[in-house]
Amino acid sequence: MTAAPARLLVLAVAAVALWLGWREFWFLCDDAYIEFRYVSNAHAGLGYVWNPPPWRPVEGYTSLSWIALLEAVWRFFGVMPPDAAPALSLGFSYVSVGLVAWMALRLGALSNSGVLATRRTAVLAAVLFATLSNRTFLAWTSSGLETALFSSIVLAWVAAAVVAEGAPLLLLSTLAGVMALTRPDGLLFVVATAAILVVRARPLGLRAVVAALPLLLPVAHVVWRLHTYGYPLPNTYYAKHVGPWPVAGVGYLASFLLEYAYWVWLGVVVVAAVTAARSLHRLAGRVGMAAAFGGLTSQALSRWIGIAAVVGHFAYYTFDIGGDHFEYRVYHYLVPLIALSFFALCDRLGWPSRRTWLTFGLMTALGLVLPWTHWAHTRTAVGHKEPGSFKFPIAKHVPLPLRPYAQAWDALQRRLLNHFIGIRHQGHRTYGWYQYARYPTRAEGAAIPLDGYPVLAASSVGYPAWAMPNVAIVDKLGLNDLVVARTAPLHTGQTDRKMAHDRAPPKGYVACFRPNVNIDAEGNVTVKPRAVPLTADDIRACEDSWMARVSGE
């Protein structure tokens, strides 16, 4: 079979595999319904607010572009967010796979020898297999969150900044601007893009100014955010960020490396880095350090800036934030990049074909054991009342020689889940089923009248917020509450914190709103009449007085 038909066959198989993986791992996590509530309120003409006026507007979502897209789909096509979000995520996942395929073939075209140049179709198949057999990649092809959208934009940016030759600067800055509207951490790529513009557009003139215009998107977004919500960052940042948490991040990373055997890739990175450092040292000894670096072309500098942006994003989440509440969500786009960079590094090192394929085969095969053993024994699990309670040690289920390896992973998973870090997608899926049974359907919940300002206080607010659109909800974890997000955290130490669960309402705050909505075990809703009606003035007075307290005014 010639190259073109073989590659088309590989892409066709990959397309089917992606759809099958999406179907198997399909889930909607509770936090997705938080964003759906903002979409619902906007669709009703109230704007992107959590509770409608007289409540203060609060930005408890993290992706303006995602909720705007969901609102547009609902408004123009009549498809509501719970149905639209998984389909859109699948579409963006196909975009990601297409970009990965393009980068795999492009890297081969840039190489003069080695596996990349001589086995381009095989490399394409290997990279796509490594991506589509990865549970983390498949888990985030749905979820209801903006993860698949963000990853597709990051991969497009990497393709333009690192892999392509002379990609249009306007394309690069547009991707960065949209990325910053999709996730706040996309601002890092905005800074990197500005640096690339300076490197590639010298002397700076009209061309550079036009190319930089999309970088004003996040600036405009911040101005709008300040005007609408009164704060420069989303409320979720103030609720979640207690302080740097490197101990947790190292465990999160170690679990990721063990689960997918990416420590093999990390070893190749170290060898390549040492080899490059020695080469640079020798070159600097001959021509001087300034001349050694001065010989870099603008394209080479741009590539290094692009790589630095990816490394910086990884380092921020790993060593400052401490990982993520969800199963390797912040490493999602790294999965295909690890496979791509593996072959690029081996090619750079001049490794023979046999060594490259044996090393890649070892990493890929070992990286299938832990995640798919876990999946095989948990895919039909039901009934977990808390996502973090979903713990399943797998050491006894793997072959005897691998049990010490699996035991190390089990220990990391247990420690992480105790801190609500890296919660498996099955935990969120089974918790979703628990929530569906616990609360009314949206049709039932929408029948609750808005009159009298019904109020529910809850910790897990996602699904009830969507199911009961007319009920004002006090978020006791603070993601959607200004006061709770600015209350002193319950836990501040490296060993006692719980990811995104370190805030609680100050004493007396929730009672100020006199919650009167109750849900029984069968999902029946009762709205208890108040002896003294709650008024708009009461709501504003409660918010103003408590904001003054927590702000120290």
Helix proportion:
55-70%
**Oligomerization category of the chains in this entry:** single chain
Distance between the termini: 74 Å
- Largest sheet properties: 2 strands, parallel
Secondary-structure-based class equals: mainly alpha
Low-confidence stretches: none
Blueprint (SSEs and pairs):
Layout: H1 3-25, H2 30-43, H3 64-77, H4 81-110, H5 114-118, H6 120-132, H7 135-139, H8 147-163, H9 169-182, H10 187-200, H11 206-212, H12 217-229, H13 235-240, H14 246-259, H15 263-287, H16 289-294, H17 298-321, H18 334-349, H19 353-378, H20 403-418, H21 425-438, H22 442-445, E1 455-458, H23 462-467, E2 472-475, H24 482-485, E3 517-519, E4 525-527, H25 536-550
Parallel strand pairs: 1-2
Antiparallel strand pairs: 3-4
Helix pairs in contact: 1-4, 1-6, 2-3, 4-6, 4-8, 4-18, 6-18, 8-9, 8-17, 9-10, 9-11, 10-17, 14-17, 14-20, 15-18
Brief overview:
The protein has 553 residues and is an all-alpha fold.
What key phrases describe this protein's structure?
553 residues; mainly alpha; two-stranded antiparallel sheet; 3% strand
